[in-house]
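Structure in, sequence out. Go:
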C-alpha cells in the first residue's frame, strides 16, 4: 500500500474542490491511446466531455450508464486534442487496476459530494 507523502492542505483549500455526481452517457476509446477513454457525462445541470485514463480496465460499453464522482471545477485541459472538462475519481490498487469511485445507490446527477 502506498504511503501518503502528499503535502497537507487546509480545510478552506479542500472546500474549493467541487465534487459532483454524474452519469456516463457515452464512452469511446481515444484514437492512438491504449489508456484513454473520452466520456460524455451528465451533471444534471449540463453535459460535458472529459478524458479519463481508464481504458485498460474499462471497456466503453461497460462504463456507459455508470454513476460516477467527478471533480467538476478543474480548468479545461487538452488531452490528445480533446478538451477535458473535469476529472473522474478512481483508485489504483497495488497491481495497477483502476477502480471507479461510484455512489452506493443511484442518485440525482449534479449533487455536491461532501
Amino acid at each position: 500500500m502506498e504511503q501518503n507523502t502528499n503535502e497537507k492542505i487546509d480545510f478552506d483549500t479542500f472546500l474549493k474542490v467541487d465534487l459532483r455526481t454524474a452519469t456516463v452517457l457515452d464512452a469511446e476509446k481515444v484514437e492512438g491511446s491504449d489508456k484513454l477513454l473520452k466520456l460524455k457525462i451528465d451533471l444534471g445541470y449540463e453535459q460535458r466531455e472529459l478524458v479519463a485514463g481508464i481504458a485498460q480496465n474499462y471497456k466503453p460499453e461497460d462504463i456507459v450508464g455508470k454513476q460516477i464522482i467527478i471533480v467538476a471545477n478543474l480548468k479545461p485541459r487538452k488531452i490528445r486534442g480533446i478538451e477535458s472538462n473535469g476529472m473522474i475519481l478512481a483508485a489504483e490498487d497495488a497491481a495497477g487496476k483502476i477502480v471507479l469511485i461510484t455512489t452506493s445507490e443511484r442518485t440525482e446527477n449534479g449533487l455536491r459530494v461532501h
